[in-house]
Each structure stands twice: as structure tokens, then as C-alpha cells.
Amino acid sequence: MYSKLHCLIILSILIPPAYSDSTFVNWENLGVSPLQLTPDGNTLLLAHTADNRLEIIKVDSQGLTPAQSVPVGLDPVTVRLRTSTEAWVVNQISDTISIVDLAALNVVATLHTADEPTDVVFAGIPQRAFVACSQANKVQVFDPENLTQEPLSLPVKGERPRSLAVSSDARYVYAAIFESGNATTLLGGGLKIKANGLSFPPNMIDDPTGPYGGINPPPNQGDAFAPPQRPDNPPPPATGLIVRKNRQGQWLDDNHQDWTLWVSGQQAARSGRSVGWDMADHDLVIIDTRDDAVSYVNNLMNIGMAVGVNPASGKITVVGTDARNEVRFEPNLNGRFLRVLMANVDPAEPEDSRIIDLNPHLNYLSSIAPPDQRLLSIGDPRAIVWSRAGDQGYIAGMGSSN
User: What is the arithmetic mean of pLDDT over 345-352?
Assistant: First the structure.
């Protein structure tokens, strides 16, 4: 018998592209949860995004054999089983869900959703279907037993909820925010004053009350610049500055200077903000199916690609990347502009999350890694699946093709 992981490895041999013309370019969306193995392990379902079909593949001791193909909506990115014979296919471009009867091999119902659905899971008592609608920034909740009923819409305070998972007891639904942000904001410093005297944001970096006394651009390594300036360079242009909020609530630049007073403190007006100003950094959504209450976990990463649940510990795992956009100057970012991370979140203590670098063999001191370290590296993680025992996790790296 084959596992989902084995099926994933050899699928490309079996499923031909939608077109054989090598000059044709597919512009379809990326899969979110495109594979589903039936409980008996005999059938693999594949959301064939490029061909707008659900592929049904037989699994036995001899391998995988394409069996049937069911047309669905445009850009199917997810397929999930609600029962052993009923599959829900999420069509991102059609803004629909195709409900497929695997016995009859046809679409028996089409649900219309909010803009750009990406994933669906089933949870709660009685069971309901939770659909992540990425462009609408909401999770819609459908009653599978009454498909004509208007869905409940749960607004999400985050950009593009994408991947969904369910707790082991089916009480909670988890959603990873694809463009969650990383608690960084820009302080103005390069704008010219307009003829009417208005400019926004104010030139805070030029402000003599700031940490650098108005030096613009400010240094990024103590009192100096790294890399060092060439002595024959002309005066550098004035620029803005990105600062990042740490877990203590301080807004720091890449030189560890504290701008909190001018971002959220008593001098916030000088940067065009109000006292107490803040920026939401919601990375993981938690939905309690008992009352549809929505809560958030913060400070995980910049881009939440996928979410899973460890069946043994019940911990939530989010994989994605975190951009170092507050770091200045290209040589300091070349080959090191982001981190590939996994967050372990305990549902009982969500704020005490543990962040793990998925490339621990890299020291980030050099922008070049030897070939053996490159082969160990994973980039652009797009999926995470745990073994039934919860002792092993598998992460798919699209950017590193591993």
C-alpha cells in the first residue's frame, strides 16, 4: 500500500500536462491541498489545476493507475473528502466548490463562495464545512446537509487566509494567513515638501529629536555603514526607514535603535501616527466551532504557506517564510533576505509558540553556501503533513524542488 507521500512523488509520471505544446505557459494558481487519499487507501484524488479536473487514481501494490477524470470549476486547488464517496473540490478562479459523487463520477452540486476560495475542512458538531476565501479575507461556513442555506461569514483580520486544518477533536479550525505581515512599518524620510506644504508621512528620519538626531540616512552598524561607503561617493539621498516591533513591543531598526517613542509613544504624531498606534500581525486564525469565536496567534512569520496539526501532540504547525525587510543595503540581503520557518503552537498556550528555522545548517554569515548545504536546504514551503504517529513531518519545498 502507498502513502500520500509516495503518491506525490510519482504523480508527475502519470498525469500528463493539459497541453503538450512546449510553448504554452500555464498561469494557474498553486495548489493548496491538492491530494487526498481515501480512508481505505485504494484511491488517490488529485485536483488537476491546469486541466480543471478532479483526477481519480487507483492505488494498489503495483503502483498508481489513472482511472477516471471529472470536470470541475476553474483552477481547482484543493480536494477534501467529506465522506468516503463525496469529495469537495475548491475552485479558486470560479469562486465555487464542486461537490463530486465518487460513485456516480459527476458533480452533484456547486456552491458559490466569496472571492478566491483556497481550502475547505469539515469540523464541529453537527459537522459544517469551513471555506477559506483568500481575497475576501473571510472564512465561510456551510451546512453540508442544507446547501441552499446562506453561509455564515466570519471576517478575518489578515490578508489572504489560505490553508486550513482541524484539531484532533474537530472542535477548532485553524487558518494560516498567507500575507500576514511581520510587524514592520515605514518611517518617512525621503519625501520632498510639496508646494502646498503637505507631505505624508512626515520626514521622521530628518527629525532632530529622533535617535540619530536627524542624520539621514542613519548608520546601520553602530556609527558606521555596512558595507562601508566609498569615500568618493556623492552625498546619499535621504530615505525612509523600516522598523520592526519585537515581542516586548519595541519598534527597532536594523541598528537596534529604539523608535517606540515616535511610532506608538508620546511623540507618535511626529511620524504621522497617534499615541498607542499599532499594526496587527495576525499569522494564525483559531475558530472555535462551538460559538464561531475567532482568535489569533501573532509573531510567527511573514508568509504563512500551510498549516497542519500533529495528531500525537495536538500542536499546530505553520510553515512559511519571514522577510528581513528592515535590513538595509543589498549586500546584506543577497542570498539572506528571508528565513524559512516552522512555528509550533500549543493550542493551550498559543502565545508561547516556538519558532524553528527549517534550515538550521545555514549560519547566514555568507550569501553563498556550498553544494552539499544547498541540497540540505528547503525553500518556499507549501505543505506539511504529519505521520499518523506524529513522530515525523513532511514539508514540501516548492522553491527548492524537494
Answer: 90
